[in-house]
Design goal:
The complex is a heterodimer of chains A (about 240) and B (about 325). Chain A has six helices and six strands, in the order E-H-E-H-E-H-H-E-H-E-E-H. Chain A is of the alpha/beta class. The mean pLDDT of chain A is about 85. Chain B has about 325 residues and is an alpha+beta fold. Helix content of chain B is about 45%, strand content about 20%. In chain B, a hairpin with a 2-residue loop joins strand 2 and strand 3. The longest helix of chain B is centred in the C-terminal third of the chain and has 34 residues. The radius of gyration of chain B is 25 Å and the shape is elongated. Classes of the chains: A alpha/beta (about 240), B alpha+beta (about 325). At the A-B interface, strand 3, helix 3, helix 4 and helix 5 of A face helix 2 and strand 5 of B.
Chain lengths: ~240, ~325
């Protein structure tokens, strides 16, 4: 199988959007372009309000990714787990598609006899270890998220620790919303070293609006920009697309 | 594909006793007796089957079940293994109540006690013995090219007579050189800022050191600014751990390449704990000197006794 790149957006938020486009629609747009959207909802009290919860789940669903709602304390463990799980899920989709091509019919791993699944799983594992990964992290810095930012930073360092243990290469980029002047602000451009965040994080200020939709839109176009730059240089890259089942 | 489904999850964690699970492919039937444990990736139940009592793992993810079965299959090829439960069956069950296909596997039911409750009941002197057994099992696993990954007391069972450790839950078991699949923060060297999450034997050995520390400090603690210093101070402050401080710090610093090396040095520390502890950073100067002085007195006493006995012997010979 050819080597490709997995592209993910990781959205970390603690509430509902209240400005701009519908984030669920923007997540669907991302999915159409082969970008998976995962969402982590950070809890304040014991429960998340109904609307926020629905939005968190809705964005992940539309973005073909995974959502999880957790307390700030569990953020590190969750961020790395959600990212890894979503990778496996996407790769399994890719392998399932290849299976369909080989076997013709509508076969996925789950429909193979148990004895045969093992080998397919080994291929998925192998891909998960070696595939190139691009993660754009989108952090909500509005209102109550402000106090959680140190925990978010720690969780991101932890994520890079987990991902850098793989054999494949990683690229990270970090956006926050709302930005100082605009809806969304880029604080870290594509880099293999997420540690560079240390210097930017303390300077963040929190705003009032929560423009989740516009932030997602900009994140998607940031991927596109990178792609067109690459094609200018002439390096042709293949991307794994999220399977539509 | 499954995005975590709360209804399904809830159902999987609460299968009532008496539920009969029938495999779609191999047609084996299993009757649920009681739950044995719950994890992030599924639930384990005790069940009755034609072959007797077995443990059944159900999950909402076919990926989880398949990877774990892959590992268990490899384990069954390792000779004389205390490595994991043996695999008996893997299948899909169509749960009519929620109209979903649930992947599961059946494995040997190991009747035992979890690591820490065994220690509480039988005494702390078992700690180092069980750790030696654990190191032998890990050595075997590492020889086969694997790393256990999610090593913690909950995944170590003490079974049988004489008490022998068995490893459970292979969800974290990873090929060496790859990224550790699953881990628990407290036992993870990455969390403590003391190494990467790339699977190598030293990754498991760090967890072994943490298990020993946790056994002596039953209340769970959190990492502070300097993880290494924090752990070192805790080792120093506990009489049992201080005996093995040299070995523990080497494991924490990732200096053991093989489980066997750690085992050998642990055995040495049991027998000669004083000189070993002395060789590496004395706990405090005062204590050190006191120990040395008592050593000198002891030696002098033995020499004097021997001389007296020899004199008596000579005296007897002359008479």
């Amino acid at each position: 199988m050819r080597k490709g790149t997995l592209r993910q957006i990781l959205l970390i938020t603690d509430g509902c959007s209240n400005h701009g486009e519908d984030p669920v629609a923007m997540a669907a747009l991302a999915k159409e372009q082969g970008i998976t959207v995962n969402v982590i909802g950070v809890l304040d009290q014991d429960v998340m309000d109904e609307n926020s919860l629905r939005e968190v789940e809705g964005i992940a669903m539309a973005g073909g990714g995974i959502s999880q709602v957790v307390y700030a304390k569990q953020l590190s463990q969750t961020v790395q787990m959600v990212t890894r799980k979503a990778m496996t899920q996407t790769l399994q989709g890719v392998v399932n598609r290849e299976l369909k091509q080989i076997l013709g019919s509508n076969i996925s791993m789950e429909e193979l006899p148990p004895e045969k699944r093992g080998e397919v799983m080994e291929i998925v594992d192998e891909l998960g270890e070696t595939v190139e990964l691009e993660v754009l992290i989108l952090i909500d810095t509005s209102g109550s998220m402000k106090t959680k930012l140190p925990t978010v930073k720690e969780a991101l360092f932890d994520l890079s620790l987990s991902l850098n243990a793989r054999m494949g290469d990683n690229l990270f980029s970090v956006f926050v919303f709302p930005g100082k002047q605009e809806d969304v602000e880029k604080i870290l451009d594509w880099t293999p070293k997420l540690e560079a965040l240390s210097s930017v994080f303390p300077k963040l200020t929190s705003g009032g609006l929560t423009p989740t939709g516009p932030a997602l839109r900009q994140a998607v176009s940031h991927f596109q920009k990178k792609r067109s730059l690459r094609s200018l240089i002439g390096r042709d890259e293949s991307y794994f697309e999220e399977s539509s089942m | 594909m499954d995005v975590m489904n709360p209804i399904l999850k809830n159902r999987l964690c609460k299968l009532p006793a008496g539920t009969v699970i029938v495999g779609k492919w191999h047609k084996q039937a299993y009757k649920i007796v009681k739950p044995l444990g719950n994890g992030a990736n599924g639930a384990v139940y005790l069940a009755e089957s034609k072959k007797g009592l077995v443990a059944i793992k159900v999950s909402d993810s076919s990926t989880t079940i398949t990877s774990e079965v892959n590992v268990l299959k490899r384990f069954s090829k390792v000779q004389g293994a205390a490595l994991g439960p043996s695999l008996l069956d893997m299948d899909d069950w169509h749960d009519q109540k929620i109209n979903r296909t649930i992947p599961f596997y059946a494995m040997e039911y190991i009747k035992g006690e979890d690591f820490f409750s065994f220690l509480r009941k039988r005494g702390k002197e078992w700690l180092v013995i069980l750790v030696l057994q654990l190191l032998s099992a890990l050595e075997q696993l590492h020889e086969e090219g694997w790393v256990f990954g999610d090593l913690k007391p909950e995944n170590v069972l003490v079974a049988g007579n004489p008490p022998t450790i068995r490893l459970l839950d292979v969800g974290g078991t990873t090929l060496q050189g790859r990224a550790v699949k699953e881990f628990t923060e407290f036992y993870d060297r990455g969390y403590w800022g003391l190494g990467s999450r790339k699977a190598d034997p030293a990754y498991d050995l760090f967890a072994v050191a943490m298990i020993m520390i946790h056994a002596c400090y039953p209340t769970k603690f959190e990492r502070k600014e300097n993880g290494r210093k924090q752990l070192f101070t805790m080792i120093q402050a506990d009489a049992t751990l201080r005996k093995y401080q040299h070995v523990l710090m080497k494991a924490i610093d990732g200096k053991y390449v093989r489980a066997m090396d750690m085992k050998r040095e642990l055995v040495a520390a049991i027998h000669h704990d004083v000189p070993l502890a002395r060789a590496k950073q004395p706990p405090s100067r005062k204590q050190h000197r006191k120990k040395k002085r008592s050593g000198v007195i002891e030696t002098a006493f033995i020499v004097v006794t021997l001389l007296c006995m020899y004199a008596l012997y000579l005296y007897g010979q002359i008479l």
